[in-house]
Amino acid sequence: MTQGHSIQQDAPVLNGRQMCFFAAFLIPASKLLAMPALLSYFAKGDLLLPALGHYLLQAGVLAAILFLASRSDRGFFGLISDNLGKTAARIVYGLYAVYFAFSALQPLLDLERFVYTAFFDTAPPMCIFCAFFLLSGFVCTKNLKAFGRSADISMPLFLISFVGLMILSVGTADFTNLLPVFGTPFRSTATGFLETLGHFSDTALILPLLDAYRYRKGDAKKIMLSYGGGAGFVLFFLAVFYGIFGPIAPRQEFAFVKTAQYFPALSVVGRFDLLLIYLMTIVLLFYYSFVLQSAVLCFTRAIGTEKQLPVSAVLNGLLFVYTLLFAKHYNALYYAISLRLFWVFLLFADVIPLLCLFLRRKKGTGNAGTSGHSGNETPQALNKEKAQKQKPGIGALPAKETGTAGKTSAKAEISVSAKPDGGKNGLEEASHAQ
C-alpha cells in the first residue's frame, strides 16, 4: 500500500478537493471583516495594489509548500525530523502552535465585534460570544477529518452568500472611485501592505495539513488555481466596496455586511440580505475554528501526546477570557500586533516555509524500506502494526520450523498438485516427486 502520513495511517485524511475548497472559499471569507476598511484607510483608491501584492507573495509561498508536498510524503513534521532531528521538529511545531494562537488574537476581536454589530440591535451580554468557543473547543478535539468536512460544506455556503451579496451590491458601485491608479503615495500603500500582513498569512495553515494530505499529480495546479480564484473574489469585493463608499470607506468596518444595504428592493421587502450574511458567518466560524484547531494539533504533536481535549479546553478558555478583558482595548492591541509585531507574520508565514525548500527531501519508504515507517506514525498505529507482525498469518509456518517441517510442507504441496481424484496415479506421482 502506498505510504501515508501519520494521521492518515492507511489512507490520507484530506484530499485535493478539500485543499482546493480551503484555498478558494475558506481563506477569502476571512478577508471580508476588517481588512477592506484598513486598506482603504492607507491606500485609498489604490487598495487593490497592496492586496494584489499580498496575494502574489502568498502565491509564491503556497507554490513552495506544494513543491515540498510533491517531492516528499513525509509531511512537515517528518521533513524537519529528517534534517534537524525530532527534537527540533517538536520545537518548530510548538512555535507554530503559539503562532497560530497569536494570529487569532486580533481576528477574534473583529469577529466578536462583527457578531454584536450585525446580529444585535442593542448591546448583548458580553458572554454571548462564548458560543463560538464552545464550537471551537469541540472542533479542536477532532482530527483533520473535521476540517475536510468543513471545507466541503463551506463551498456552497460561500458561493451562495458571496454571489448573492455581489448581485445586490454591484449596481450601486461607482468604479470611478478607484481612479486614478497610483494616485496614492507609494509610502501610504507600502504602509497598508505591512499593517495588513496578519490578514494575508493564511498559507502557513497548510503546513500542518501536509501531515494528513498525500500529494497527487496535478494537485498543485488545482490548488494554485483555487487560490487564484479566491484572490479574484477578494479583489472584486474590494473594488465593489470602494466603489460604493469611496472616501468614507475607511469608516465602514465589517464591509460585507454593508455593501448590499443600498439595494432598492430592501426598503420594500426588508433586509433579506441578512440571510446571505448568516451563511457567510458560518464559513467564518469554520475558518477561525480551524485556526485554533491548528494550534491544538501542533501543540499536541510538539509534546508527544494525543490528548487534545485538555489542550483544547485550556486554549479556548484562555481566549474566551481574553475576548472579555481586551475587547475594550482593541486599538491598543491593533497597534501592538499590526505595527510592532508585523514581522512575526512575515517570519512564520513567509520566511520559514521558503527556507524549507533547502531541506533535504526524501520519499517515505513504506513497506519497501527497512522499517516501513514514515516517521510520522502515532503510537496507536505503531502498536497495532507491531501486533500484526507478531501474529503469524494463516498457513504460515513459524520461523523455528525448518528442515523436516519444510520438507513436510513441500510434500503436502506436491500431493495437492496431484490428480484431484486422489487415486493411484496421483500417489505414484507424489512418490516419484519425493
Automatic annotation (TrEMBL):
GO annotation, biological process: spore germination
InterPro entries reported for this sequence: Spore_GerAB (IPR004761)
Topology in the lipid bilayer: Multi-pass membrane protein
Transmembrane segments: 21-42, 48-70, 91-109, 115-141, 153-173, 193-213, 225-245, 275-297, 309-327, 333-359
Record keywords, A-Z: Germination, Membrane, Transmembrane, Transmembrane helix, Transport
Listed GO CC annotations: membrane
A Pfam family assignment: Spore_permease
Domain of life: Bacteria
Record localization: Membrane
Annotated Polar residues bias: 368-381
Principal localisation: membrane
Start and end residues of each stretch annotated as Disordered: 365-434
Similarity section: Belongs to the amino acid-polyamine-organocation (APC) superfamily. Spore germination protein (SGP) (TC 2.A.3.9) family.
Protein name from the UniProt record: GerAB/ArcD/ProY family transporter
Native source organism of the sequence: Candidatus Scatosoma pullistercoris
